[in-house]
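Methods — Computational structure assignment.
A single polypeptide chain was analysed. Its primary sequence is given first, followed by the predicted tertiary structure written as structure tokens.
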Amino acid sequence: MRLEREFHENPAALHVGCEESHVYFLPANREGRSMQTLLSGEWEFEWFENLRQVGGDGVPAFNELGRRTENGRITVPSCIQYAGFDLQQYTNTRYPFPYDPPYVPVDDPCGLYVRSFSLTDEEAALETYLEFEGVDSCFYVWINNTFAGYSQVSHATSEFHITPFVKAGENEIRVLVLKWCDGSYCEDQDKFRMTGIFRDVYLLHRPKKHLRDYVITTSFAEEDELAVSAKQGFICVTPEMAPFAASGKEEGSCGEDTAREIDVRLLNAEGMELGSAMLRDRETGCLTVEDAKLWSAEHPYLYTLILTVGDEVITEQVGIRTICVKDKVVLLNNRPVKFKGVNRHDSNPYTGYTVTVEDVETDMKLMKQHNVNAIRTSHYPNAPWFTKLCDRYGFYVISETDMESHGTNDAYCEHNHDLISVLAKDPMYEQEILDRMQRNVLRDRNRTSVVFWSMGNESGYGPNFINAAHWVKSVDTTRLLHYESQTWVPWQSQDMRDLDVCSRMYASPEWVKLYCENPENEKPFMQCEFCHAMGNGPGDLEDNYAQIYEYDNFLGAFVWEWCDHAIFAGKAEDGREKFLYGGDHGEFPHDGNFCMDGLVYPNRKPHTGLLELKNVARPFRLVSVDKEEGTITLSNKLDYTPANEYASAVVTLSCDGKKLWEKETDLPAILPHKEGILELALSEEERKALQERSGNRYLMITYKLKAKVAFLEKGHELGFDQVALHTQTAFEKVEAKGSLTAEETYDTITFKGEGFTYVFDRRKGLFTSLDKQGEVLEAPLGFEVFRAPTDNDRNVVWEWKKAGYDRMEMRAYEATLTMEGEIATLKVPVSFGAVYLQKLMRGTITYILNGQGDLGIAGELTVDPIFPYLPRFGLSMAVPACFDHVRYFGYGPQESYIDKRRASYVDLFESSVADQHEDYIKPQENGSHYGCTFAEAFSADRKIRVTGQAAFTFGASEYTVEELSSKAHNFELTKAGFTTLHFDPVMAGIGSNSCGPALPAKYQEKKEKITFALSIRID
């Protein structure tokens, strides 16, 4: 056969020789032995630059022109790029080839896989199917030198009936995998682009009379108040038998005696049989469950169905649940539900697309630990067994079709604002889009956890999607349908009636408010992507979750995204793993580190953003505290479980970082979505401490899991609330103490007192030396405006640099010294500006010094409003590296910012400077602590203490701002050799503007006046 442009450039030839799609299952015999022969393992392999090199007379052959692995073998499943072939390439939207659908480059790289397998006489007498669970992008198959078929759709299962091609004894399979095909225009997802047989390959040996497919649906009657159980549940099964094989072979052990009858048995989770039925082909049978337990993410109860045909047994687990929309609200089991979700790829930095059950369970464990209850499979169906795990462990799933044609939007064009919809409207791609939807639905439609179908991602809208939506609704009325790209085309009159929700990405809080409060909007709202978790972020989780809880018609949202995508590249000299991103492989095009946008690092270490999500999505929230009554009002954010059944609590009162008392208590029986009162059993002394108005007093309530559940042990911390009962400043005003002298020259003022000598540079307006029992400055004591840009600063940073913030200099116009008793006061009129630009700020910096070396620094500055908001403004100290430990009272222990501090709480914290560093793969601003009243850096024998008249943001780092700003990877960082301390009265929020909306004005430091007062004491 001629391979070039045979099938892989023909949208009318998507699956040649393939079986029709059906639900995913693995049969066994009555003794429980699997009828699967796994072909995963070592295969012979050869890599070709194009199809012309493949050679062979109708069957591809090894060719000396091709490139072999060192030993001519490759592991299946795996990605070709991890075996050293082709380049790793990360691109977000741009196609990695010229846009010319359905054609792909003539030099289309391909890999030839070859292996043999053996069939026993018993196996050869059965029907043999060859199964591929995932191959990117398309592949041709030969069995024993005979062409068996072709298939595409990378993340779908392809099945070939190969009985006519196999025999007892040795057999050979050849698979030619192409990097690109016409389907690649539909697989333009934001990810590394990899190639190969990346999921399992296996044979299924089945009797001639066997199930081809079966459909399971569930319903119930008279649910209880919490929708945890129902008086009766109904599990219905419709089996479909495979047609008799036409191979001419004799019947196997399961022949005519089956009479096309299917034995169906139903067991509960404890193994007790609840009912049975005998069904014929395409006959629906319903089994009734008395006192049925309903499935939800909080209570993932599963029943077991056993389907037997002759000697073949298929075991299926199923939960009883329903989902619908009523009065603009999504109801699961007839109760309102909230999705607290993440977007997840099948991704592993060491193996690429190839993931194991253990990999997925690692993800799911972390999700459960951090209060995630929903997953969107971005942007394709995950491994076929993935949703079985979601059934078991309790996750709501939006199962997304392997469809994204975002790259059409990058075509060169000046006026067409709907390029994104090119394939959505192209008749040539009508069947291809429908096929992708069908293969998703037909594979996973028996999975309880799948509550939504998604037609794909970022592919525009048009007749092809409308047709696919109609098909979905014609075959499955038990789930809802989502497709975000319909919101891209509001100027068009399109049929959207089959879409059950209005879905958006990264909608601003203002937009959400307008939608949810508009009575004309009949569909519930959902954010399929929000709070872009790139680098140091996201910073807008709390504001978004506040709206999720506020509006009944706001179903929930999915953080983009779960994990950083990267390629493991060995270890650095210091032992850190090296991870590479776009552009690190010499590829074009690429999108840099835009793939590093997860809540966890590639190796699944949590980002601080995941810790933030955990507490924002905590199951309970403190509403108010009545200090007089000793009560706490709580809100239960669970959907199906009373508070007292799920958690207990630990309540702690502290003052200035010292614990005054602590109480362990049960939670009251607060119903889901309701509020209730927790009464604290306090002694008179404890009540008095609660009411006292002195010091920094904080009440903290920590929620603890009451009983073990999947992945979580009893006592697991679910989250916390903290409320300030009384606060006060720690500011230490510089007062007259000790004996002080000042010696003035034209350029300097030298202050001397008890054990210290400080030198002030009159020209620069800065202290250049603070020598108290040794020098504590490695550079002049100065002010910083710029911060190492975070990924979420990637848009505004160009304005910051245009405004000169990264090269800002302070100009001192004069320095006037006044000595009053033992107090020296320096008033310095200053301005801040950058080369060739006007002044950013003008005002006065005032220094106050006493005879013990205590130094006060105050400022009153006026900011030119034409400039963009400030990244930061504050005092910067470079001190010797021996100051390697810090102590502070503020938000910790994690990094915290004005809009990213819910994982942190106010307390007295202490750590090494090294531990303050959050090691983002692309270096950036990190490790700061919001709301500090004092901070200290100390060495073995000295301490630097800074207090503020108002709270400030504190940071300590072994790296300079310049180093963090200039390096592309964390393993490239070089320590400064000193410690940099930051005391920032002004620090902008984090936000999620790497992809999300601009930082809200309330978190910008857009001020016309900046006033501050800090004091420094060196002991």
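Note: The two ends are 85 Å apart (CA to CA).
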